[in-house]
Amino acid sequence: MENFNQIESDILNKIKNVRDSNALDLVKTEIFGKKGIITELFRKIGSLDQSQRKEYASKLNDLKTKVTEIMEKNLI
Questions:
Q1: Of 42, 63, 65, which Cα lies nearest the Cα of 53?
Q2: Which are the contacts of 36, defined by CB distance < 8 A and separation ≥ 6?
Q3: What are phi and psi of 43, to 5 degrees?
Q4: Residue 14 contacts residue 31 (beta carbons within 8 Å)
Q5: Residues 27-38 pLDDT 10s
Q6: Where are the domains positioned within the chain?
Q7: 11-70 pLDDT, tens per residue?
Q8: The pLDDT of residue 75
Q9: Which of 30, 53, 63, 67 is the most buried (most CB within 10 A)?
Q10: Are 2 and 56 spatial neighbours (Cβ–Cβ below 8 Å)?
């Protein structure tokens, strides 16, 4: 199972270091793009045991929501 706290910390550090809109776009792609961090984590759901999927998906959705909210605040 993934260490979501560490992943969240890494993502938040990337967002914190953003200085302009171009850098924000690059970070957004790195996180949510086709081969982004969160996208790859969502792909792993199918390979998990049925018993692990619900907890994993819930934590991943919470992470995605939190990151999305922080990025939206960063745009303002």
A1: 42
A2: 29, 30
A3: -65, -25
A4: yes
A5: 999 999 999 999
A6: 4-75
A7: 999 998 888 889 889 999 999 999 999 999 999 999 999 999 999 999 999 999 999 999
A8: 64
A9: 67
A10: yes
Q: What are phi and psi of 3, to 5 degrees?
A: -95, 90
Single-letter amino acid code for the residue at 72: E
pTM for this predicted structure: 0.86
Cβ contact 11:18 at 8 Å: no
Contact 39, 45 (CB under 8 A): no
Cα–Cα distance for residue pair 76/67, rounded to 1 Å? 15
Q: Which long-range contacts (CB under 8 A, 24 or more apart) does 16-25 make?
A: 18/74, 21/75, 24/71, 24/74, 24/75
